[in-house]
Amino acid sequence: MINKLVDSMEEAVADITTGSTVLMGGFGGSGVPEQLISSLFYQGSNKLIGVSNNCGYFEEGLAKLIKYDRLSKIICSFPLMKESYIFIEKYMEGKIDLELVPQGTLAERIRAGGSGIEAFYTPTGAGTEIAQGKEVKEFDGITCVLEKAIKGDFAFIKAKKADRWGNLVYNKSGRNFNPIMAMAAKVTIAEVDEIVEVGELDPESIVTPGIFVQRVVKRREQ
Amino acid sequence: MDNRLLTREQIAKRIAEDLTDGDIVNLGIGIPVLVSNFVADNAEVLYHSEQGVLGMGSLAKPGEEDPDLVNASKLPVTLVPGGSFCHHADSFAMTRGKHIDVAVLGGMQVSEKGDLANWKVKGAKLGSIGGAMDIAIGVKKLFIAMTHLSKKGEFKIVKELDYPVTALKCVTRIFTDMAVIDVTQEGLVLKEIAAGLSVEEVQKATEPRLIISSDLKEIPV
User: Fold this and answer.
1) Which residues of B touch A (CB under 8 A)?
2) Which residues of A touch B129 (CB under 8 A)?
3) Residue A17 confidence (pLDDT) above 80
4) Do A17 and A127 belong to one domain?
5) Is A29 within 8 Å of B67 when comparing Cβ atoms?
6) Cβ of residue A97 closer than 8 Å to a chain B Cβ
């Protein structure tokens, strides 16, 4: 029997180790696996490499991990915003490294990481500081930059519904990075609002097939 | 403040006139996001938002907000009938893959070759790229909405960028509080000018030499 259901957030993140790369879904406040991120704080691992579009808001979740120096590096597209003041302060103090990536390149590097593509050429970033130190090549007159795949040891993703096989559906633009991050990690953990029986999800509507998901955990009632 | 200069709303209204029925449009933050307020009701213009929304509607009314349905500025929005959601890689396949007709972005500097700088202040240690680089290189037409001069009175339309580059040779048309300017192979063409301003005044506020269009018009407001 295939059963990926885990009883608690704590159990779901228990085996994360120091130095792990953790992909975290979400765009702004939508589709963020906030209970998993919060559990990672209490779990205690450090020297983590985080991959997330944003750098945390105010002082909770990802911002809290950054505040307590639990991340050695973050890979993201949008670090400079007033709500990310914790990150900005830590970055200016030299306490955290930043790999700044254009958002579409970030998405494609993650998609590639889950798809067996080690690198690809994209016109995004050609002629900019993003291309510095990277191989640049022209195809049909278009200058492109070689970008490498991003792979995670763990991915935290947020979905609306799951079954015990790990099939997932999302809610609206809460989907964002979650399906591609699910593909790109050795262990993908889905934080979900609701768990349904196998066979209940419409096969035409399943966005992430269970093959990409290792653990499913239901959100605690707030 | 010189009252001959267009307001943010007037710039947005002028841009809206360049959108046509059936266009798929991506609007950046700042002046660009105001453009949708001025698109004619009978025009079916479909808005793309980078986090995977095609067919984004207006801002959500109080009580109708869903934290999982937001725009690129992270504000709660609605979806139009027929709208759809996709994941981030597909959303950026739309922008990078020349599927979007028009994007309207803000600008810090535009060069006479159509190079764009809009993500990081000159000399700053940190900036946010977000979707700007992918959108700039990937759309069919790129419109830039900005003031003609910086707050300090510096040129924003320049011969060569000295701010960090967003993308090279990407801008189609520049809409400012003074003028509408096309980027062409020959150089920058002054197409329209705000009422009451002279060509000389616009040229004085523009570093590269402007080519004056043979059918130069006043910007309708």
Assistant:
1) 49-53, 66-70, 74, 79, 85-89, 91-92, 95-96, 115, 125-135, 137-138, 164-168
2) 77-78, 100-103, 130
3) yes
4) no
5) yes
6) no
Name the pLDDT band for B202 (thresholds 50, 70, 90): very high
Cα-only R_g, chain A = 18
Enter the tokens of residue B14: 């002028």
* A98 and A139 part of one domain: no
State how beta strands B102-106 and B46-49 pair: unpaired
Binary contact (A104, B132; C-beta < 8 A):
no
Non-local CB neighbours of B152 within 8 Å, separated by 6+ positions: none
Range of the domain at A15: 5-114+149-218
CA distance B144 to A43: 47
Rounded average pLDDT over B68-76: 86
Give me chain B's average pLDDT, please.
Answer: 96
Question: Which ranges of chain B does DSSP label H, i.e. alpha helix?
Answer: 8-16, 31-34, 88-96, 132-138, 199-204
Would you state the pLDDT for residue B73?
80
Residues of A in contact with B135 (CB under 8 A): 104
Supply the ipTM of this predicted assembly.
0.96
Q: How close does chain B come to A30, measured CA to CA in Å?
A: 4
Please give the model's pTM, rounded to 2 decimal places.
0.97
The correct answer on CATH 3.40.1080.10 for the domain covering B8-215 is yes
